[in-house]
Amino acid sequence: MKTIAILTGGGDCPGLNAVIRGVVRAAVLKRNWKVLGIADGFDGLVDGPRIIPLDMAAVKGILPRGGTILGTSNRGNPFAYPVEEGGEVKLMDVSRRVVENFRKVGAEALIAVGGDGTLKIARQLNDQGMPVVGVPKTIDNDLRGTDVTFGYNTAVGVVTEALDRLHTTAESHNRVMVVEVMGRDAGWIALESGIAGSADVILIPEIPFDMEKVCQAILARKERGSRFSIVVVSEGAFPAGGGKIVQLTADQNLGVERLGGMGQWVAAEIARRLEIETRTVVLGHVQRGGTPSPFDRILGSRFGTKAVELVEQGSFGQMVALRGRRVEAVAIEEAVGELNRVDPEGELIRTAEDLGVMVGR
Ligand code: F6P
């Protein structure tokens, strides 16, 4: 009987349990294999091995559940792992310990479910002789190699519902509602939910925005008779010439750190420049928690079952990916490194602009 292991790393994401369930059902039920869960991502192989046996009973009822029943990594990358030594925390390469602990587990392969960071680690471990199959995950949808990641559809649904709800309160009070959404490096969530939720302004990291033009767009709406506006801001968006928040010096940071985030800064600027009432809503981890959408349950299930097929074929160093309508295998290599970001000249941005949405420029 073959034994395989699975872990989930990085930020949690709706659909992770669908992947775990898919792996267990395809392995246990269809192939009579044994599946071992590694607790808390790679942490469970650094200070372990810490194992959660995954039989059919363990995955019962988890399909609609958010989060991950395996827990996820909190301490990080085994190639640069924080270790305390003499009262000081140093980053050490503990990857050999991971490989040794994996041997102790007695599994023939590891299915690593995660985003850019987890997949990079998976590829490096695979290069060191540990047989790994990857499953791409992130609500931000910023991974290359796959058309879409699971979790993203749920996040867009949550934000769209929030925008629908915010419309009625914004309209009642003639306010500008600024909604900050996740997306450190890529504006997919802001852009697609902004289109779906009929935002008036969408600010994303890929297009540094001009605050003057944002204000003009709000004024133009007022002139057309709409006394409220909805502004969606990716957490990673930044003003043209300002640089990203993290790169700003104390003088340049425009009070962003003090105010709490880019959404709050944009709201404060609109209020100051136009002398109108604004409110900020930071959706935060609500976008990541809770039940996955049907699309993400299906994609997670397809990814999980396909990952088992790749293990069966011995296709290590590969990850599952959605290409068009098919789930296929691609080299993990293809997904890591450069991120999948919104093309400022692409069709989706043109659609937004043709709809009259202001995208910061
Ligand atoms: O999963 C990616 C992400 O959603 C980013 O958009 C966000 O910056 C980050 O997670 C925050 O995660 P955490 O609070 O867990 O560090």
TrEMBL record:
First-listed, main subcellular location of the protein, grouped into a coarse class: cytoplasm
Membership in a protein family: Belongs to the phosphofructokinase type A (PFKA) family. Mixed-substrate PFK group III subfamily.
Binding site for substrate: 138-140, 175, 182-184, 235, 279, 285-288
Gene: pfkA
Record-given protein name: ATP-dependent 6-phosphofructokinase
Binding site for ATP: 11, 75-76, 115-118
Lineage: Bacteria, Pseudomonadati, Thermodesulfobacteriota, Desulfuromonadia, Desulfuromonadales
Binding residue positions for Mg(2+): 116
Reported function: Catalyzes the phosphorylation of D-fructose 6-phosphate to fructose 1,6-bisphosphate by ATP, the first committing step of glycolysis.
Key word Kinase present: yes
Keyword field: ATP-binding, Cytoplasm, Glycolysis, Kinase, Magnesium, Metal-binding, Nucleotide-binding, Transferase
UniProt pathway: Carbohydrate degradation; glycolysis; D-glyceraldehyde 3-phosphate and glycerone phosphate from D-glucose: step 3/4
Localization per record: Cytoplasm
Subunit structure, interactors included: Homodimer or homotetramer.
